[in-house]
């Protein structure tokens, strides 16, 4: 079987797989075209393929198209990609019993259901899901990973890179537990593969977010540190100094996001291509509680 064709999308905009009716698709385009690129999907299998190849960063499923034949597939989709937002959609296109279909979407893994019959208030769950979509920094970092590894990249590795560059979890332990892995086992997989430590990737994510905000805002180093949840401007400054040899102010004048991502690609991806082929830091992970 040939590898799925890559979808060319704007670098700074996430993609949303949309299994919806034509009329619902038109409504979504009018509402969110400035925030996401909609990828029409014909069924759950198409959504799963888009998730697995990194061509979609979330999905919206219409209650009007849901029938019992898809229930198992939809539940399996959520279990396989729990970190990607899955939203149910209810509009006038859905015939009765709409309520039961909407409830089924929730039980099958849709984190929320946008009921547009409620007017503007019905968009709130959908907007919340959009807020979980990848940032421009995450999109660019994961695109470099996919470009370097091609079909040898694993969903687990893309998930780790996304977490490292998103910044919601700033500790290795947090990322491991979110993926259902014991922190020591998670770190051990990097060691056995002779890869840089996961902390090194997280630090690169910090610097990438610093570079992006330094380029796109006029914020001070202190304000950027607060935004990316660094413990303090001083700790961020020490990290940048340790990794680059420059103070944040000096580094800001001489570098940008492009240079950070080029360094990331060269030092942390291309220098370890053999080890990264089919590498999944979450492979075989069992669900662990935060107290593990």
Summary?
The protein is an alpha/beta fold.
Structural account:
It is a single chain. With 292 residues, the protein is of the alpha/beta class. The chain folds into 2 domains: 15-130, Response regulator (Rossmann fold); 136-276, Homeodomain-like (Arc Repressor Mutant, subunit A), CATH 1.10.10.60. It has helices at residues 22-32, 44-52, 71-80, 98-107, 124-130, 136-149, 155-166, 172-178, 183-192, 198-216, 221-227, 233-244, 248-254, 257-269, 273-276, and strands at residues 15-19, 37-40, 59-62, 86-90, 112-115. Helix 7 (155-166) packs across helix 10 (198-216) and helix 8 packs across helix 9. The longest helix is centred in the last third of the chain and has 19 residues, at 198-216. It starts with 14 loop residues before the first strand and ends in a 16-residue tail after the last helix. Residues 1-11 and 285-292 have low confidence and may be disordered.
Overall pLDDT level = 81
Total domains: 2
Largest pleated sheet? 5 strands, parallel
Radius of gyration: 20 Å
Shape: globular
Q: So, the CATH homologous superfamily of the largest domain? A: Homeodomain-like
Estimate what percentage of residues fall within beta strands: 5-15%
CATH-scheme architecture of the largest domain: Orthogonal Bundle
Measure the end-to-end span. 41 Å
Overall number of strands:
5
Helix content: 40-55%
Q: Helix/strand-derived class? A: alpha/beta
């Amino acid at each position: 079987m040939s590898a799925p064709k890559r979808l060319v999308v704007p670098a700074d905009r996430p993609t949303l797989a949309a299994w919806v009716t034509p009329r619902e698709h038109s409504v979504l385009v009018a509402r969110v075209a400035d925030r996401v690129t909609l990828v029409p999907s014909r069924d759950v299998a198409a959504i799963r393929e888009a998730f697995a190849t990194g061509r979609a960063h979330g999905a919206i499923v219409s209650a009007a198209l849901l029938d019992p034949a898809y229930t198992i597939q939809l539940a399996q989709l959520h279990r396989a990609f729990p970190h990607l937002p899955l939203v149910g959609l209810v509009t006038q296109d859905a015939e009765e019993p709409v309520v039961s279909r909407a409830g089924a979407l929730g039980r099958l893994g849709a984190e929320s259901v946008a009921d547009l019959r409620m007017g503007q208030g019905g968009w709130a769950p959908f907007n919340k899901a959009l807020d979980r979509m990848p940032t421009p920094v995450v999109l660019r970092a994961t695109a470099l990973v996919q470009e370097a590894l091609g079909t040898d990249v694993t969903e687990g590795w893309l998930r780790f890179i996304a977490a490292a560059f998103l910044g919601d979890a700033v500790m290795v332990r947090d990322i491991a537990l979110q993926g259902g892995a014991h922190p020591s086992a998670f770190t051990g997989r990097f060691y056995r593969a002779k890869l840089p430590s996961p902390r090194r990737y997280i630090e690169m994510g910090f610097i990438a977010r610093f570079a992006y905000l330094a380029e796109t805002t006029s914020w001070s180093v202190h304000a950027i540190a607060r935004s990316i949840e660094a413990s303090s401007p001083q700790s961020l400054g020490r990290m940048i100094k340790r990794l680059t040899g420059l103070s944040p102010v000096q580094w800001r004048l001489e570098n940008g996001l492009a240079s950070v991502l080029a360094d990331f690609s060269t030092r942390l991806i291309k220098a370890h291509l053999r080890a990264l082929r089919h590498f999944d830091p979450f492979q075989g992970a069992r669900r662990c509680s935060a107290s593990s």
